[in-house]
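Lecture notes, unit on binding sites. The following record was shown on slide 14. It pairs a sequence with magnesium ion.
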Amino acid sequence: MIDIARLSFQYPGSDFVLSIAHLSLGIGEKVAVVGPSGSGKTTLLNLISGIIAPQAGELTVAQKNVAAMSDSQRRDFRINHIGMVFQQFELVEYLRARENILLPYLINSSLQLSRNVQQHAENLANRVGLEDKLNRYPNQLSQGEQQRVAICRALITGPKLLLADEPTGNLDPANKRKILEILFNECKANQQTLVVVTHDMAILDGFDRTIDFEQFRQSSHNPSGATK
Ligand code: ADP
Ligand code: MG
């Protein structure tokens, strides 16, 4: 699902360099990405989803050469293949939970909002226990509920690849388990590949594999980390 080789990325004017010699993720794999704060975990998710573009190297996602795409091609690619749960949820404060879940259909003219899609949003909300909260605004929802709205929004388009950035970050243990169960169940049911960034070692059990970002740490002696 994801193939990375000799990838290099640097923010303009910053001395942080993300350098990955090799990394492959299979279809349907559930992978946890761990590593210290500031090591580039969010940057990697943004590269995979095409929000930012690498300066050098190969990046293939869902058999598409993301590294070679233009900005607008990467945007279309993201809309059609990727579901993203952002670290800070990024819910729209003035929209109700229902519209937040449907947001990809409200802002992308390439996606057609239909009665079926609306039904799908309700089904997703039912599965995560939000059925009676769909008319609430984000500030009327708990952190765990906002998190679940963000997950439903990431799932609504039926993406092949689900990327979640610290989705259990601010949750109590019971809600943590619940969120992970939802992510695992959805991905299993739909054969979706799941990449979860976390620094919570307590949740690593359920994943097929853990990728430790420590190995990508840039140093002047070893400019490229290597992994498989
Ligand atoms: P993590 O998610 O592992 O905490 P990030 O990927 O967010 O790390 O950040 C990696 C490094 O890149 C950090 O040093 C951070 O300060 C820097 N960084 C992140 N976003 C930007 C940006 N937009 N511009 C410049 N530097 C950034
Ligand atoms: Mg981060």
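Take-home: DSSP finds seven helices and nine strands in the chain.
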